[in-house]
């Protein structure tokens, strides 16, 4: 199962990705979480200690790795480099071990692709998203940046589903609309809405209407719960800080729906 979590900044992507990855780990999935957001805070939401998290070198700054895989050192101009670097050993070699058997890869800042950007960092990032092989009982969960423009066409074609997190607020819904257009362009197979920070039934009704209008299925909703904000302030993973939170159980149900939708062969 290969998932990408997208949506406007602040909607809850990192909290959901981290919690979902931990729960997949507990379910026995060999789980790799990839932080593709330049703000790089997935480690905390996974429960990797700040001591370790603060020392992580993102792949985008690992120039020797990029040079080894693409044939070109970032920053150098010209040169012919491999557009399809091998990536399948990268999780083992550069992934950081976290709780529940999960691993974390931190991408760092990947420059916006623009029209045909050919920088080697971008090439390695794309290859990672696109070519990481996922076998039975394996999961890759990616915490993406709001804009997907840096990925480029075809990159996320291999993703089973893109989870678009929205709050019942117009701004995040406008972002979802843009993501829908972009996901078509990028060749995403399945785009699904996850409603987050839901406070009452009228917000449920609202989101159902929005999902119907946008023609993006509503996969799950997650309630608003203050303890998730407290977890964030304490820099502790939601699943460790508030294991009994209704948010954690809603993500558990989301996990079960995903497993049903994309059964492990
Ligand atoms: N269901 C929720 N209930 C309450 N607060 C939440 C919920 N989900 C996320 N948050 C809070 O919202 C803020 C943004 O969440 P975050 O996961 O960092 O979003 P993103 O990665 O999309 O920018 C954080 O303070 C987080 O604790
Ligand atoms: Mg985030």
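^ Assign residues to that structure.
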């Amino acid at each position: 199962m290969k998932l990408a979590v997208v949506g406007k900044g602040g909607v809850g992507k990192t909290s959901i990705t981290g919690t979902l990855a931990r729960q997949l780990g507990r379910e026995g999935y060999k789980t790799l979480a990839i932080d593709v957001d330049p703000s790089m805070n997935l480690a905390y939401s996974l429960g990797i200690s700040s001591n370790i998290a603060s020392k992580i070198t993102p792949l985008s700054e690992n120039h020797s790795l990029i040079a080894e895989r693409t044939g070109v050192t970032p920053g150098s101009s010209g040169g012919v480099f491999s557009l399809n670097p091998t990536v399948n050993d990268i999780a083992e070699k550069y992934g950081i071990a976290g709780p529940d058997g999960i691993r974390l890869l931190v991408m760092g800042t990947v420059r916006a692709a623009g029209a045909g950007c050919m920088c080697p960092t971008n090439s390695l990032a794309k290859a990672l998203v696109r070519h990481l092989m996922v076998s039975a009982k394996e999961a890759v969960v990616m915490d993406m940046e709001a804009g997907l423009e840096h990925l480029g066409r075809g990159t996320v074609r291999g993703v089973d589903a893109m989870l678009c997190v929205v709050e019942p607020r117009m701004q995040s819904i406008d972002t979802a609309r843009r993501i829908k257009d972009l996901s078509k362009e990028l060749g995403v197979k399945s785009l699904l809405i996850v409603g987050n920070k839901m406070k009452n039934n009228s917000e449920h009704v609202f989101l159902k209407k929005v999902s119907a209008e946008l023609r993006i299925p509503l996969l799950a909703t997650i309630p608003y719960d203050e303890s998730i904000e407290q977890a964030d302030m304490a820099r502790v993973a939601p699943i460790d800080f508030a294991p009994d939170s209704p948010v954690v159980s809603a993500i558990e149900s989301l996990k079960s729906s995903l497993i049903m939708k994309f059964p492990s062969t």
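Residues 2-261 form a domain with the Rossmann fold fold (CATH 3.40.50.300).
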